[in-house]
Design goal:
Number of strands: 11
Distance between the termini: 43 Å
Strand content: 35-45%
Order of helices and strands: EHEEHEEEEHEEEE
Helix content: 10-25%
Number of helices: 3
Length: 154
C-alpha cells in the first residue's frame, strides 16, 4: 500500500484495544493512569486529531492488551467520552461506551488530609458518583465532594 503525501499509514491492530475519542487535554493523563509507559506492548498514540464528536481528540492503540473493569472505570473518570474498541484478528469484536458506575473503590485517594482513609492504613477508599456528567464524586467516609479536575488517582 502506497501512501500519498497527505496520508499516514499506521499498522492495523491484530489483537488489542483501541481507546478512541479521548479529549486531547486528557490523553496523557490516561496514558499515565494506565501505566502504559511500563508496558512492553506496541502502542500507538495520536493527539490533537480532528473529531466530529469532540472537536479535538486523542487515540491510543495497544496491541495484545485488554483492560480489566477497574481500569475502564479509571478511564471513565478522566475521559467519559472515550470509546473502547476490542480488536481480535484485525476485527472490532466489541465496542464499549464508558459509563461511570454509581460507586468506585480503590481507584481514588481522598483530597481531605483529615479523612480516615489518609490517616489509617488498610482502609479501602470508596467514593459515590454525585454527577456523572461532570465527574463529581463524594467520599464515603468524610463526605468531601471532589470535582473531576481535583481527583487524585491511585
Amino acid at each position: 500500500m502506497k501512501a500519498s503525501h497527505t496520508e499516514l499509514i499506521v499498522r492495523a491492530l491484530e489483537n488489542g484495544t483501541v481507546i478512541d475519542h479521548i479529549p486531547a487535554d486528557k490523553l496523557f493523563k490516561v496514558v499515565w493512569l494506565l501505566h502504559l509507559d511500563k508496558l512492553p506492548n506496541q502502542i500507538t498514540i495520536g493527539n490533537n486529531l480532528e473529531s466530529k464528536k469532540i472537536i479535538c481528540k486523542g487515540i491510543i492503540k495497544i496491541s495484545d492488551k485488554f483492560f480489566e473493569h477497574q481500569e475502564l472505570d479509571k478511564i471513565a473518570l478522566i475521559a467519559p467520552t472515550a470509546k473502547i474498541n476490542i480488536i481480535k484478528n484485525y476485527e472490532v469484536v466489541e465496542k464499549i461506551n464508558l459509563t461511570l458506575p454509581n460507586e468506585v473503590t480503590e481507584i481514588l485517594q481522598c483530597v481531605n488530609p483529615m479523612c480516615i482513609t489518609n490517616k489509617e492504613q488498610g482502609i479501602t477508599t470508596r467514593f459515590h458518583i454525585v454527577d456523572k456528567a461532570k465527574g463529581t464524586v463524594k467520599c464515603h467516609y468524610c463526605e468531601r465532594i471532589i470535582n473531576q479536575e481535583d481527583l487524585i488517582l491511585k
